[in-house]
């Protein structure tokens, strides 16, 4: 029997469950922080998370990919030497890092052009875009079941998002009370492409540079992320400058018991994401995000007493069915396979094959003369 989502071994299943569990935990903690009226600066949190990711990736590289018996200074020099040797890859990681910065900037802009429900509804089509980009960049066609699964899962995410729309009919208006313009829809498309292309391109780098340790590639990714994030703050692209975001007050809020676990979880998610893309792919990463979208309200109903709506129940059915379709084997369409006959039947089989050949030749000559 085919394993669900093609998770054939314990390592793949462990990575998938860990990735999804971390995101669900982050969502639950975020809901708890909102209920406690705890507010924090997202730009400050992103900078701290990037620094923690860099420290974690460096630690994992120094302890897993170098000689542990060597002095720490020697191992650090070796890591710097490797970074110098693979500086081209370090520069290539500016592509996904920069695209993620573009995604963050456009999310700030688009949330003001659209209402939240419409914004998140349209973002669900990232699943289909991920399939298209993954197929193009890896020159590997997705099978029928995978496409149907992505479509059904997208429908489930859309249904879940529809359940959050404003019943008073304001869903078509942005934050300023105006209908979104054609330019706004174009920017939303750019935002979707930035996120999906960054994820797929990150997978390309991890798999096509397999000789370079994942931990070192993570170091490159987070160095570039810090540079891009600081550049974004320096230019004020998120509506605030570095001086406004990186204050003592904002840092102290991140140390609160409601926010600090969220920062730590996001730091671990960065490392787990690289392992996910290395061992699995962007398609199943998108499906894991869809599963998180339906598991989160179910757990919120248990922990916070939130009611389960009909939209949520329908979304669970659609996403679950999408995962089931993805796991179905695809029927082979190649040539039929024939079983070998016993040795005492081979003489009769050869005689039959000669008669068949003669019949075929006669039929062929008849068709040609016609």
Automatic annotation (TrEMBL):
Top-level lineage group: Eukaryota
Localization per record: Membrane
Keyword Transmembrane: yes
GO-annotated molecular function: pyrimidine nucleotide-sugar transmembrane transporter activity
Sequence segments annotated as region (Disordered): 346-370
Segments crossing the lipid bilayer: 12-29, 41-62, 89-109, 116-137, 182-206, 218-238, 258-277, 286-304, 310-328
Biased composition (Polar residues): 354-370
UniProt KW keywords: Membrane, Transmembrane, Transmembrane helix
Membrane topology: Multi-pass membrane protein
InterPro entries: Nuc_sug_transpt
GO cellular component terms, semicolon-separated: Golgi membrane
Name under which the protein is recorded: Nucleotide-sugar transporter
Organism taxonomic ancestry: Eukaryota, Sar, Stramenopiles, Oomycota, Peronosporomycetes
